[in-house]
Design brief:
With 302 residues, the chain is mostly beta strands. It has 3 domains: 67 residues, Immunoglobulins (Immunoglobulin-like), CATH 2.60.40; 92 residues, Immunoglobulin-like (Sandwich), CATH 2.60.40; 78 residues, Sandwich (Immunoglobulin-like), CATH 2.60.40.10. It contains 1 helix and 22 strands. Strands 1, 2, 3, 4 and 5 form a 5-stranded antiparallel beta sheet that branches. Strands 8, 9, 11, 12 and 13 form a 5-stranded antiparallel beta sheet that branches. Strand 8 and strand 9 form a beta hairpin. The C terminus is likely disordered. This is CNTN4 protein. It is found in: Cell membrane. Keywords: Cell adhesion, Cell membrane, Disulfide bond, Glycoprotein, Lipoprotein, Membrane, Repeat, Signal. One of its GO terms (molecular function) is cell-cell adhesion mediator activity.
Length: 302
Amino acid sequence: QTVPEELQNGGGFGYVVAFRPFGTVSWMQTVVASPDAARYVFRNESLPPFSPYEVKVGVYNNKGEGSFSPVTVVYSAEEEPTRAPTTVLARSLSASDVEVSWAPPWESQHKGRIQGYEVRCWRHDEKEENAKRIRTVGNQTSTKVSNLRGNALYHLAVRAYNTAGTGPSSAAVNVTTKKPREAAALLATLRWATLSTTGLCPFCLLFSPPWPQVLYRWNRQSSTSVIETNKTSVELSLPFDEDYIIEIKPFSDGGDGSSSKQIRIPKISNAYARGSGSSTSSACTLSALSTIMISLTARSSL
């Protein structure tokens, strides 16, 4: 910073810039005669990139020299990183998000500092130059890439950057996003079996894939019980003297699907309780058909 005129204490004011390679003894000095000067450029074509120098700045006027500033360390201009990140890994988090991680370049950077990393992500049917770019800052070695297309193959590559530019790219890795919730018809059929001596009425729910959650509750209660299954049927043993509401909802890694229409189970009278266990009463046979958005890749937790 320049010295204000009221503090120059005389004519012929100027600056003395002293500098030396870091770790050496002898100072080099140059005079900057203008009192308004705020910079000095030392040019040396043989100077290695990102070389540290110790620098201090003093003042003078016609009466003599003043004191020097404290010593500070500055660096010559850096070059872009010369090595690519290693051990690049990618995994799908959902239908629209993937996570990518990497390790810093093996070779230590003698020509500059790594200020962060640039992740490029492009779909298999896109050109690499149109890739989505995400930049991290500092030592962060993982990031999430969002707003991707579901069930699509993506390529990802990582490179380091600094003030001079970006370094070479890592080898691209592939990842396929999870399937989004797709339209699927879910057919649920309620079949009454028989009335047991315990007062519990077994019902058999038959439905087509994908894997569903079966949600049921008493008509007079707000709490809901949930059964998960990867089969195409499930048997519920419920007290026969209560009204029930049953819904079926598919689920997967891509998210939960929409619930089927509500299946209402009325109280089952003793008249319907007569008969063998293999018989089916038409009065107790219900069905529901609705469109479900579901992924078929794998199940997800509640």
